[in-house]
Amino acid sequence: MSRTVFCEKLKKEAKGFDLPPYPGVLGERIYQTISVEAWKQWQQRQIMYINEYRLSLLDPDAHALLEKEMEKFLFSEDSVLPPGAGSTN
Fold first, then answer.
1. Is 81 helix (H, G, I), strand (E, B) or coil?
2. Which of 38, 43, 82, 89 could disulfide-link 9, Cβ–Cβ 3.0 to 4.6 Å?
3. Residue 44: enclosing H or E segment and its boundaries?
4. CATH number reported for the structural domain that contains residue 69 in this entry
């Protein structure tokens, strides 16, 4: 039987994770309150940030930026697309 959670991002019951998808306290919070569907949405958004800001995943500052944006995307209404993302210019 699959695990379900009330997803804070989607505001509905949805399939949850079998294990936390991210390490530490934040990973546990995601495990408890975010659905697999919402996490997949974050992964798509994360790609936009990596591309728009030309982030190197070897850079600790890039990881810090992505973690901050992940928290905003999953847990608040303040999330916005990176400048230039989604534009057709």
1. coil
2. 38
3. helix 36-52
4. 1.10.3880.10
- Residue 34 is part of which domain span? 4-75
Do 45 and 39 touch, CB atoms closer than 8 A? no
pLDDT digits 0-9 by tens, 13-60: 999 999 999 999 999 999 999 999 999 999 999 999 999 999 999 999
Does any domain span residue 86? no
Q: Is 56 a member of any domain? A: yes
Q: Which two tokens stand for residue 78?
A: 């303040």
Q: What is the pTM of this model?
A: 0.85
Distances (CA, A) of 75 to 23, 47, 55, 57, 66: 17, 19, 23, 23, 14
Residue 87 in any domain: the answer is no
Q: Domain for residue 30, yes or no?
A: yes
